[in-house]
Amino acid sequence: MDPGHPDAAQWVVDVATSLVANYDVDGINLDRIRYPDGNLGTNLPSWGYNATALARFQTAMGRVDRPPAGDAQWTQWRRDQVTSIVRKIYLQAYALKPRVRISADTIAYGYGPQTQGGWTSTRTYAELLQDWRGWMQEGILDLNIPMDYKRDASNTGSNNQRQMFTEWAEFAKDNQFRRQAVVGTALYLNDVGSSLRGRLGRLLVPHPRRSRERGCAQR
Length: 219
Description:
Blueprint: H1 6-22, E1 27-31, H2 51-61, H3 72-96, E2 101-107, H4 113-116, H5 123-126, H6 132-138, E3 143-147, H7 161-174, E4 180-181, E5 183-185, H8 192-204, E6 216-218
Parallel strand pairs: 1-2, 2-3, 3-4, 5-6
């Protein structure tokens, strides 16, 4: 399902909004609303080269070439296609039933933006083309659930997953934009003690800008 193909994108929107139209649901939760990862180790998004998506990109940008995977315009265009799906689901669901809320399970790979050089340098934004910070800022996502699946016991060296967890949790706290964030944690990677005493405690501490998570979702 390529977000850059209008038929595929519309199918996703139609499935989500049909649930709102035909069932008494409280909300819709989106998962894998992004481009795939695993791009041959290049860390550049190499998905989306179907003929229809390429033609749409070329028309929109006034180009005739096949852009390389790391082309800035091509990358942003594809990122915009993912955002367009989220926006359409949000607006159409709200028009059908204003009480319905839209949430998404979002990506929080590796270290947070604080270590990686900013939001646009993260794999989430640059490789998976998922701009969940932008969705929150635009107000087309009611609840952000970053999947911050890290091992609390791994807290030293270059793979300091405790630091990774904290960085993403703090970033989510500070980028709610009058919406809400609930950090997804991984009980299956941690014992109960470290999950309850360490992670929940850190999540509930307000950020210096007075923002805090609304809770956590355990997996």
